[in-house]
Design goal:
Radius of gyration: 22 Å
Number of helices: 3
Shape: globular
Distance between the termini: 69 Å
Number of strands: 8
Structural class: alpha+beta
Helix content: 10-25%
Largest sheet: 8 strands, antiparallel
Order of helices and strands: HHEEEEEEEEH
Oligomer: single chain
């Protein structure tokens, strides 16, 4: 009987502690600000859409992956001013080829894709650009861009310029 009462008391104390947790501890996690525009950072929110891994295969030490989907709405916000740009991507395909020896990753993005290049890390950064068309680039295993974007066809929209 004593063990049952002790367990009930512990359960009651845990329930009471849960109910008295400060509201700030229950709040949503902080949004990450990315150093992807000259002079300010941006936050990214997305909703809707359906991105699925369509295929992954290993051949000659290269891992090939295709991710495709449609209908994602993306909002990019200036972390300093709160100014926001929102757009629909309508659809995209991301093809990657990861070299298992070097870790380098070749990207081929088609459709509408938001590309963030970080300050003091990526060549050509900082920048936040919406590419519609085809974009090709290579990163290292940490997703750091060491060379300029290799190919770009279609249109590009400078999100940083719209958020200034």
């Amino acid at each position: 009987m004593r063990k049952i009462l002790w367990r009930l008391l512990l359960t009651a104390l845990l329930a009471a502690m849960t109910l008295t947790v400060p509201q700030s501890a229950l709040a949503a996690p902080p949004v990450t600000a990315y150093p992807a525009c000259p002079g300010f950072s941006v936050t990214i929110n997305s909703s809707g859409g359906n991105q699925d891994v369509r295929m992954t295969r290993l051949k000659d030490g290269i891992i090939y992956t295709i991710v495709a989907g449609r209908g994602t709405t993306i909002s990019v916000t200036n972390a300093d001013t709160g100014e926001t740009v929102t757009f629909n991507t309508k659809g995209s395909v991301t093809r990657t080829a990861t070299n298992t020896t070097t870790g380098d990753i070749e990207f081929a993005l088609s459709g509408a894709n938001l590309v963030l290049l970080f300050d003091k890390v990526d060549v050509g950064g900082p920048s936040t650009v919406l590419y519609t068309g085809l974009v090709r680039f290579t990163t290292d295993s940490n997703y750091t861009l060491h060379e300029p974007i290799q190919q770009q066809t279609g249109t590009q929209r400078d999100i940083c310029a719209e958020l200034r």
